[in-house]
Amino acid sequence: MAEVPQQARSRAASLREQLEHHNYRYYVLDDPEISDAEYDRLMDELQGLESDYPALKTPSSPTQRVGAAPLSEFSESRHETPMQSLANAFESGDVEDFDRRLRESLGVDSVEYVGEPKLDGTSINLHYVDGALVEAATRGDGEVGEDITANARTIGSIPLQLRTDQPPARLEVRGEVVIRHRDFERLNQTRLERGERLFANPRNAAAGSLRQLDSRITASRPLTLFAFGIGHCSEAMPKTHYAVLQQLREWGFLINDRVERLTGAAGCLDYHERLVEDREQLDYEIDGAVYKVNDRSVWDRLGSTARAPRWALAHKLPAREATTLLEDIIPSVGRTGVITPVAALSPVEVGGVTVSRATLHNLDEVQRKDVRVGDTVMIRRAGDVIPEVVSVVASQRPADARPWSMPERCPVCGSDVVRLDDEAAHRCMGGLFCPAQRVGAIMHFVSRRAMDIDGLGEKLVEQLVERERVATVVDLYRLTRSDLLGLDRMGEKSSDNLLKAIAASRQTTLARFLYALGISQVGEVTAKNLAGHFAGLEPLMAADEEALVEVPDIGPVVAESITRFFAQSHNREVIDGLIEAGVHWPDPQSQTAPGADDLPLAGKTFVLTGSLEAFTRDEAKARIEQLGGKVTSSVSGKTDYVVAGADPGSKRDKAEALGVTLLDEAAFGDLIEQ
Ligand code: IVH
What we know:
Elements: H1 6-28, H2 36-52, E1 76-78, E2 88-89, H3 92-106, E3 112-119, E4 122-129, E5 132-138, E6 144-146, H4 149-153, E7 170-178, H5 181-193, H6 202-210, H7 215-219, E8 224-233, H8 241-250, E9 260-263, H9 264-278, E10 286-293, H10 299-302, E11 312-316, E12 321-333, E13 338-350, E14 353-359, H11 363-368, E15 376-380, E16 388-392, E17 417-418, E18 426-428, H12 438-446, H13 458-466, H14 481-485, H15 492-504, H16 510-516, H17 524-534, H18 537-542, H19 545-548, H20 556-567, H21 569-580, E19 605-609, H22 617-626, E20 630-632, E21 641-644, H23 650-658, E22 661-663, H24 665-672
Parallel strand pairs: 2-11, 19-20, 19-21, 21-22
Antiparallel strand pairs: 1-6, 3-9, 3-10, 4-5, 4-7, 7-8, 10-11, 12-13, 12-15, 13-14, 13-18, 15-16, 17-18
Helix pairs in contact: 1-2, 3-9, 12-13, 16-17
């Protein structure tokens, strides 16, 4: 093995120290000092040194956090002291009994506790020898777990080396590995995109991730460790549990910030109440509060029952998962036209709330979970999110359970239901007409970059729709002063201003009009391209998919969306209604002034030089002007483009000298194809 130069050795040590420091800032303090890119740069440098001088590699090196080659199986790991369970309390009376028993056994008037959230993840035991992580194990049966050291090393919040010069010779640290809600959502989103099975909940995802034979998979999962105590320690540790947790925090562990000292049963019950209240705001799942006698010196004296110590108690929170009967699956049309399968459930109480509806997200999820009408399903409520169907209780499936399929027609308006190629969702194509989409469609129609009707906010649109003054966007042009005056916060002045804004919007451009229709997949740029290409609404409405894919940036998915939209007779009726109501735009052939700003070449100055094959000079000039551009004869600093055909003259050289963009015929062709 190559001799390691002293310089490389000390640089590696310094990099390791820096990386662990930044790791600690990021994972434990949640207060990074450097960017991810800078961190990666330090990591790359250390990896480089370690590959040049393999003798520099140590098991505690931050480079080990990326995972290693897969194992064929886990070996066993015996905990130095058993990992016990906790006795459970469900009611306040249980907590009062617990406190009374302790006061009596200890012969004191009041007991101090440490309150901690009971994290809903998977527990882990970490062995440190002389400050270095040497082994990590799952809880297993409490005596013997599985050796998952390689996996534990990939978890950023697990110190590979304790942050102290005087570590105990041997120490066991215990804690709960969890996945935070924000990380869990991202993880499942990625899995959805890759067509992989979704994790039912963060606990299963954490437990599964920790038990991967390939630690590179564990490394890709966003696991977090909260330390909640110690097992064996060769040296004396602080006398109170609270101080032990502070010690662990100093040594580099993440300690939950809801850890508190509490007095007596009343303190515990108050803590529990606050956790119940704040539960929705926490970024991780909890299933209870844990109370631990703070004075560790009495722990031995209090002893244990068969499975749990007498000095601690888990006070459960109401469960947020429950099973119930799925009576039906109802397609629900959202305000953007997306159709979500919603489970209609036999009402069941979950976490203190009665739930009778839960989302199934989309058809793929219904099929992946194989959910059928008549099944018993597990549902979950977490955070502020809508309750969801997590899984089917397969053993309880009746013989007549019925698979579900997406309807072909919108249940609200009868328009076609289409799943565009690259989308997970099915959509109703009747965007302009569908009552479920009214508010959404109108808000989009009036928005600044669409018809630009100022003064029509969402609250107002909701009122107009509720009072049946407006059903489709056509009705906006029929509104009268008296329709508006009766609405909340609408005085005479604001009503008149709104009516003026509506009237002014009648004069628009084809591109804005197309964008305002809210055709799925048709944004502003596509709308401009369509307007430029077809130069009129009629030819666009008549175009088939083949003709549509001729337009720049339009592929088969967008083309399908457009033809489906215009194929809905209801949508056509609304478009006819708008035109009858006086919505108009200049004929693009003769278009100059109004709306010219919206044209693709608006404000651009061109100079033509040399001869073009496909156009005469005049044709090229006309096309540029049609698209809002200007053609001048001499090149200056104000020129945006010089189009150079065959045998260009000195104008080309001048353009080069001035740094003006030069277009050959092909590039010019692309530009005016917009
Ligand atoms: S203390 C002897 N503290 O709950 C004390 N456990 O039912 C043993 N847990 O296996 C554990 N949060 O997985 C403790 N703050 C916390 C906890 C906690 C979650 C889990 C842990 C343990 C189980 C016991």
